[in-house]
Amino acid sequence: MAVTDDPAVSVCFVVTIDGIELGSFNTCEGLGCEVVLEQREEGGNNGHLWQLPTRLKYPNIKLSRPLTKDTEKVAQWFASMTTGFRRKTARIEARTGDGRKVAHWGLLEVVPVRWTGPSFSPDSPKVATETIEIAHHGYVMED
């Protein structure tokens, strides 16, 4: 296996919304799509059930990371919704530890759904993390 063909074992996910970088995240869940099928029975054909594709459905994407200075950018993005909202285009890049891009996904009409901040408790000293959840209406192919 050539060095350039090595699988990305340790990656981070850099998120950019309309050219504004929100920073890198450690985890990314929900990239994918599903074809919604409609089932139809045909009269007289008892041994077969038609499965007809109707539309594509996209799950929400959840990104998590430890708190960083980029947390302020996420807060500003969510706060900007109070004065009106325009759907934006996003880009998620998977990068290796040395910053080399492995893959990327362009997202259409991104809407912020949820931000979850850290829980602080003296009983459980953990790394303070944040999670953002975004919805989108499909993928855009880019160069």
From TrEMBL:
Signal sequence interval, chain numbering: none
GO MF annotation list: structural molecule activity
Top-level taxon of the source organism: Bacteria
UniProt-listed InterPro entries: CHP02241, Phage_T4_Gp19
Protein name: Phage tail protein
